Automatic annotation (TrEMBL):
Residues 8-26 have a biased composition (Acidic residues). Residues 1-86, 137-178 are annotated as: Disordered. It catalyses: Hydrolysis of (1->4)-alpha-D-glucosidic linkages in polysaccharides so as to remove successive maltose units from the non-reducing ends of the chains. Signal peptide: none annotated. Pfam families: BES1_N (PF05687), Glyco_hydro_14 (PF01373). The keyword Hydrolase applies. This is Beta-amylase. Belongs to the glycosyl hydrolase 14 family. The keyword Hydrolase applies.
């Protein structure tokens, strides 16, 4: 990175010097030309055919009659020198600005960019539209009309497009244009807020905020006339009326591979007494879901409910009744071994703590929980430092997990034997995900904070000391001290900033150890899960830590345990570990944020799609299946289309696709008529069936 930045700065300096040299040469040429025009000793070229040169007495007289002529001649030379200095200074400033933007802002500026390119890049980053002729206007302005000689985009509300629940006849937005047209490059990479055809017309990326829009133009220059896109054109009173359809063609998924669709049950479907909370209401909802041919349901099997009161005393009663109900409807089951606490995180509407007997141990030995640099404990799940420590009434954490999974396998043997249970997802950390609890809301974290390292309990620090001693640097047996706090940004810290300590000798040692603990924990638990559920698919869930993905350090991923800076692949080792156990990778970042969240994505230099494809490629490189689920509530067609594009990639040369999709989650809102109709349509397309309405 330093070399690349150095090259950019050298190019800018060379450009500045070359331009200054060119200007000096031009000035010298102009001076020589002037002297030639003046001639030698007052002789100027003559246009007469008789004499080659003609004596001009007036010129000589002007020189001799003025005593201040030398001063007047020197003034232009001084002005030229001052102009050159000013220009040299200006170009030096421009070079530094360009170098800084390339280095810190991820701006894609050409090598010989000028100030116009800089202004245009900044304007587009702020959400403005900059046309090739320089016309600039706000991309979301609907009420204000630009002045003459400018252009504007009239965009329909994206939130209305997503929340529109009742079908309506197709309408068009009409834009009024004079007879002149400006050249518009329909390029999704360079313009925002302009109606642009792309391979995915329902893409919700920041470059496609106004897909159903009309254009109002009053440009004064015309270099190329472009036809309207999939719309109509009329001429009224000398004005061209361009109608653009509000509905966009969708990709046809008829005949594509069959991808099973599961629905995640509500968090409180089983109460704290391990009873089915509302069997009649649930049965009614399951029958409705069965009517649209979903493949099955997913449910959490909470450690804090089943083994709540005493070690190795398991109560599966509520789950027995639920599983029989599901099997009678001929639906499949995906179950989650949930070894974490429920409550306190985004989307949690109930509280299910860890087992009471574990909490009692934690009161006397709080080091069984993850701990941050300030000593704050997080009882959301057990620290990975006690995986091999006999601190849980004579058992290690790994043994506790295995005993729980073995009890489940024995209790529901008939469901395994007849294939009713199609997959078991093993919880490996907070929210059931393989990650550190680096972003706890209960400790004040808010998006898009970088989070904090969680390695300060006694057992994790003991492992760090051992690793430092084996490396021969015992003074490295500590966590970094210049990492900021939960809500810091990477550039505000000495560790995560560009060229920060994360890429130094100690930083690389610490991050390698920290991430390896994560991989080792997943390896241990999955090896026992494979033993307990032999013959059944097992899975592990990875989170989508997409904020600060466009920075060099990927700070939020580092604190979560994914050693994935810009110069290292942090997911290949995890994929290899999953491949070792034949486990499926469940990833929950397959859809983009809603349109109103795009500003937050830009501010946090987030890239959900870039992260998703890095993880997907890491998994496909080692040939392991990929399952998926939505990370945010989704009831609209636009969101479903984005999920479909991710689950069934259109351009994959090998025709690969995800193995299953789980919808989060069953709720009264999903069962509303219009929302349910959209969900039914989504399920059909997941199954590769044809649908009637192919417009969005």
């Amino acid at each position: 990175m330093q070399k690349l930045v150095g090259v950019c700065e050298e190019d800018d300096e060379e450009e500045m010097e070359m331009d200054v040299k060119e200007e000096d040469e031009e000035n010298r040429e102009k001076q020589i030309a002037a002297e030639m025009m003046m001639g030698v000793d007052g002789v100027m070229p003559s246009t007469s055919g008789s004499d080659q040169f003609q004596y001009q007495p007036q010129s000589q007289e002007q020189v001799s009659n003025s005593g201040g002529a030398g001063a007047r001649r020197s003034r232009p030379l001084e002005e030229k020198e001052r102009t050159k200095l000013r220009e040299r200074h200006r170009r030096a400033i421009t070079a530094r600005i360009l170098a800084g933007l390339r280095r810190h802002g991820n701006y894609n500026l050409r090598v010989r960019a000028d100030i116009n390119d800089v202004i245009a890049a900044l304007a587009r980053e702020a959400g403005w539209v900059v046309l090739p002729d320089g016309t600039t206007f706000p991309s979301r302005s609907q009420s204000s009309t630009p002045a003459a000689g400018t252009s504007a985009v009239m965009t329909s509300s994206s939130s209305q497009m997503m929340s529109q629940q009742t079908p309506s006849p197709p309408t068009t937005l009409q834009g009024v244009s004079s007879g002149h047209h400006t050249t518009v490059e329909y390029n999704a990479c360079s313009m925002k807020g302009v109606f642009m055809p792309t391979p995915s017309p329902y893409d919700l990326s920041s470059t496609a905020h106004a897909r159903s829009s009309g254009m109002v133009a009053d440009g004064r220059e015309q270099t190329e006339r472009l036809p309207p896109l999939a719309g109509s054109m009329e001429v009224i009173n000398g004005k061209q009326i361009i109608g653009l359809p509000t509905k966009l063609p969708e990709r046809d998924f008829a005949g594509t591979p069959y991808v099973p669709v599961y629905v995640m049950l509500p968090l409180g479907v089983i109460n704290m007494k391990c009873e089915l909370a509302d069997p009649d209401g649930l049965l009614k909802q399951l029958k409705v879901l069965k009517s649209i041919n979903i493949d099955g349901i997913m449910v959490d099997c909470w450690w804090g409910i089943v083994e709540a009161h005493a070690p190795q005393e398991y109560n599966w009663n509520g789950y027995q009744r639920l599983f029989h109900m599901v099997r009678e409807l001929r639906l499949k089951l995906q179950v989650v071994m949930s070894f974490h606490e429920c409550g306190g995180n985004v989307g949690d509407d109930i509280c299910i703590p860890l087992p009471h007997w574990v909490a009692e141990i934690g009161r006397s030995n709080p080091d069984i929980f993850f701990t941050d640099r300030e000593g704050r404990r997080n009882p959301e799940c057990l620290s990975w430092g006690i995986d091999k420590e006999r601190v849980l009434r004579g058992r290690t954490a790994i043994e506790v997990y295995f005993d729980y999974m073995r009890s489940f396998r024995v209790e529901f043997d008939e469901f395994f034997e007849d294939g009713s249970i199609s997959m078991v997802e093993v919880g490996l950390g907070p929210c059931g995900e393989l990650r550190y609890p680096s972003c706890p809301v209960k400790h004040g974290w808010r998006y898009p904070g970088i989070g904090e390292f969680q390695c300060y309990d006694h057992y994790m620090l003991k492992g760090l000391r051992k690793a430092a001693e084996m490396r021969g640097h015992s003074f490295w047996a500590k966590g970094p001290d210049n990492v900021g706090s939960y809500n810091s940004e990477p550039h505000d810290t000495g560790f995560f900033c560009d060229e920060g300590d994360y890429d130094g000798y100690y930083g690389r040692f610490f991050l390698n150890w920290y991430s390896q603990v994560l991989v080792n924990h997943g390896d241990r638990v999955l090896s026992l899960a494979k033993l307990a559920f032999d013959g059944t698919c097992i899975a592990a869930k990875l989170p989508g830590i997409h904020w600060w993905y466009k920075t060099a350090s990927h700070a939020a991923e580092l604190t979560a345990g994914f050693y994935n800076p810009c110069n290292r692949d942090g997911y290949s080792a995890i994929a290899a570990m999953l491949q070792k156990h034949g486990a499926t990778l469940n990833f929950s970042c397959t859809e983009l944020h809603a349109l109103e969240q795009q500003d937050h994505l830009r501010e946090a230099l987030a890239d959900p799609q870039g992260l998703m494809w890095q993880v997907v490629n890491a998994a496909w490189d080692v040939c392991i299946p990929i399952a998926s689920e939505n990370a945010f509530l989704c009831h609209g067609r636009v969101g479903y289309n984005k999920i479909l594009d991710s689950v069934k990639p259109v351009n994959d040369p090998d025709g690969r696709h995800f193995s299953s999709f789980t919808y989060h989650r069953l709720s009264p809102l999903l069962m509303e008529r219009q929302n349910f109709m959209e969900f039914e349509r989504f399920v059909k397309r997941m199954h590769g069936e044809a649908v009637l309405d192919s417009q969005v």
